[in-house]
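yo, Sulfatase-like hydrolase/transferase is done. seq:
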Amino acid sequence: MNFRNRFSLCFLVVFSTLSALPVNAQKRKAKKKDQPNVLIIYTDDHRFSGVHALGGMQVKTPNMDTLVADGVSFSNSYLMGAFSGATCVPSRAMLLTGRNVFDLEGQGHSIPPEHKTIGEALQAQDYNTHIVGKWHQDNASLARSFDSGDRLMSRGLYLVDHFRMPLWDWKKDGDYKFEDGYLLEYDENGKVVRRPVTKDEKRGPSGTEKNGPHTSEIYAESASEFITDYRKKDPFFMYLAFHAPHDPRQAPQKYKDMYPVEDIVLPPSYMAQHPFDNGDMFLRDEELAVWPRTPEVAKQELSDYYAIITHLDDQIGKVIASLKESGAYENTLIVFAGDSGLAVGNHGLMGKQNIYDEDGVHIPLVFSGNLIKDKGSKRDAFAYNFDIFPTIFDFIDVDAPSSVTGKSLLPVINKEKTSVRDYTYHAYKQFQRAYRKGDYKLIEYVRANNYDKKNGETVKGSRVTQLFNIKNDPWEVYDLSFFPEYAQQVKTMQQEMKEKAKELGDTKENIEGEKYGFWEFY
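structure:
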């Protein structure tokens, strides 16, 4: 065989081998140089209507509104639920792993190695992964998920004060010690300085803008510096986890002045008191305001909520400005989402330990930036926060890890499909379950056994059924469950909800550490 024939044969063999490779693998290799940066902006206790462009409320959010205008937003985006009163723990575990609440390890405090995090999975795609802000999971999963980080929160002490937030520097070995924590304060010249955290620090919201920078300012500055200084060839993934607008609802005075209490308009679902015991009426979040929640009390809480959101909005604006000034905006996918809803007076509640929409599970979700083509559009498809992970991987055209159980929303974003699921299911501890299909949402409550260290064995909750038409009644004001004409609707949804519970694995045995299950008492 002469040289030309041998060369032709080799060429055919190589060409055939490449042709046989999976299409995704070929795309992955071809697109490596142009992989987009990914920025997730995750806010805390930030309900859907806490973004003006989404809910049309009084809150001023011009920078978040710009993200909505420059992207695709989901009108029916949700937290699935929680088996902890600190709903931000499972919410973040779901976001980071792409797994639903029944697929987590326990309540979500720990992420086992077999549940690949989005940071780990992007590292495998040659992304540089970076975290700023709040981390509610274990140190081991933190260490393996990121290459770097800054201004970490929740590593050993929480003073319940946005102006006096203990912080930790990034440690790749994940060994965070109490004595390594520090506070940022202003010195006599107004310069930001750091001092060690001591064991006798006063807990509670005693700080003001005169003491030190607000958490939102700290995290936004750190994120902006990372973006501005980034020089590596590989794309970056940044998880920017703000603590706002979580209580205490503190903001600099100029933001508080934007929302005079007397001018606040209460939403349709405002109530002075919740009409029945929902199972978790007397935990920390609910003790932030007195009972009954008079209009004056509710307006004050809502005024403070709007103020800290508007302050947060300004900080988000600084991060987006750094993307644009650095040139990174052109090739960065921005995902903006909240971790849960929040009542702030709705239905007589203050916290998020429920599965009403705005009060507990309805969240903002926006895919934004230069790379999004159908700008300013909204989608009605049902979505969960754990769909963010597979959507990002679909967007960068690589396969998500097999441990991910969420669904990619990219076909909905690209208008290839109108939806990827036809219902949502929600759970809160052993007390509440909800099932949404079409325009209707069924919520079921039970009176159940409970155990906690403070009170031991107790019985809490009420056996109540509610049915709402979310399309006509998005604030869930008008309970339809007792009207004869809706009897069949209730019965059908109750049966379907039981079926979905089995499919999802909604049993106490499936949630490590749970002593009681909802379906034992239903």
